Amino acid sequence: VQLQASGGGLVQAGESRLLSCVVSGIIFSINDMAWYRQAPGPGNQRDFIAGISRTGVTTYQNSVKGRFAISRDNAKNSVYLQMNSLKPEDTAVYYCSTMPHRNNWGAGTQVTVSS
């Protein structure tokens, strides 16, 4: 499985950012997909933040509910994460993967939110 996430960068608190992920090596349309993130610092794990089923049902971690929105485009083998009202604590490397991830990881994309 190849997972190419993009769209990260440096943003100010309160701003928005759209992350994209192009997926190959699997039949995208029949897979549930998700975004995960890993904050900087020792011991921080890679946590689930948003998921979307193959039928479009979405789930969110409480910390991003109401601010982030996950979507998918099966024609483009892509999954997206619209992030609004960003906070410094959203600073992390963001990864897309299958849901569950089954240890399918790409390089991720860094999002840094400054206060």
Can you tell me about this structure?
The structure is a single chain. The protein has 115 residues and is an all-beta fold. Helices cover 0% and strands 50% of the residues. It contains no helices and 10 strands. The strands form 2 sheets. It has a 6-stranded mixed β-sheet, with no helix packed on it.
- Unreliable stretches: none
Largest sheet: number of strands, sense, barrel closure: 6 strands, mixed
Q: Percentage of helical residues?
A: under 10%
Q: What is the alpha-carbon Rg in Å?
A: 13 Å
Number of strands: 10
Strand arrangement across the biggest beta sheet: 2-10-9-4-5-6
Q: Termini separation (Å)?
A: 36 Å
Class by alpha and beta content: mainly beta
| Sequence of secondary-structure elements | EEEEEEEEEE
Task: Look at the structure and give the mean pLDDT.
Answer: 97
Shape: globular
Report the total helices: 0
Approximately what portion of the residues adopt beta-strand conformation? Answer: over 45%
